[in-house]
Amino acid sequence: MDLEIKGKRALVLASSRGLGLGIAERLAGEGAEIIICGRSEGRLAESAEAITARGGGKATHVVADLSDPGVTDHLEAAVRERFGDLDILVNNTGGPPPGAMKDAKLEIVEKQFEMMVLRVMDITARFLPAMQKSGWGRVLTVASSGVIQPIPNLGLSNALRSALVGWSKSMANELAKDGVTFNMLLPGRIQTERVEELDEANSKRSGKSIEDIQAAARAAIPAGRYGTVEEFASVAAFLVSGPASYVTGSLLRCDGGSIKSV
Ligand SMILES: NC(=O)c1ccc[n+]([C@@H]2O[C@H](COP(=O)([O-])OP(=O)(O)OC[C@H]3O[C@@H](n4cnc5c(N)ncnc54)[C@H](OP(=O)(O)O)[C@@H]3O)[C@@H](O)[C@H]2O)c1
Prior knowledge:
This protein is α/β, with parallel strands linked by helices. 47% of the residues lie in helices and 14% in strands. The protein has eight helices and seven strands; from the N terminus they run βαβαβαβαβαβαααβ. Strand 4, helix 4 (106-134) and strand 5 form a beta-alpha-beta unit. Helix 1 crosses helix 8, helix 3 (71-82) packs parallel to helix 4 (106-134) and helix 6 (193-206) crosses helix 7 (210-219). The protein starts with 8 loop residues before the first strand and ends in an 8-residue tail after the last strand. The chain binds NADP nicotinamide-adenine-dinucleotide phosphate.
């Protein structure tokens, strides 16, 4: 299927590694022009160069820390200079620290809310007018299966990402007539460095070996395994594609069946 995104201009937030980078690679493979961003200059420069060398769409990078209140202006300036405007925005962020909701200190909740929720809303708002004007836009927000089935010991993730569910659906309703879609993609357990780190933290906390932790996690997934970044990125690519023009306001799971409800 032709995804019809050759030449489209895309910004992928939090994309120096993991899911964000996987999505950027996939979109560039389909011919989209990409800006990747994150805090690690070295990793970003290497990844942008590698993406461009593969011969699809070109990738460049911006060093941008989503916890910095000035980051929206900084990213907007970079997009204006390189692309003028955006056709595709992929909202991804770093994950919050693990822990029980009841133990979360208010200042941490506030800091994470700013980074994971407010920044996403603010950055999106900057690029909507041009999408509306052109009659074509795609906003995809990466969240977590925890917004449907809260994940134990990831209280902040469950709580804060749920705010984005209401936001994305409201935006979908308000912008559907303008050809701008808003969807959310919910990873279950996709093999990335963050998942590895969470498994290690879980192993330390419980005193169980990492192999046992991972075997138990796999046993709870109907597919019997973690997903790959490529599997996740393929779903993302469809959701921001031309053929997905009538898909908006959706929460799509990419979880190997692990969410228990329908
Ligand atoms: N993988 C999964 O199965 C899964 C499941 C549920 C939810 N999620 C969520 O999906 C998101 C991506 O997951 P992942 O597994 O790809 O995580 P990851 O491997 O930790 O990658 C996170 C990305 O976010 C960037 N980042 C972190 N803090 C940032 C900041 N303050 N400003 C800008 N960029 C920042 C990191 O780059 P720098 O370090 O260079 O800044 C990195 O590129 C996370 O929010 C995660 O919680 C993932």
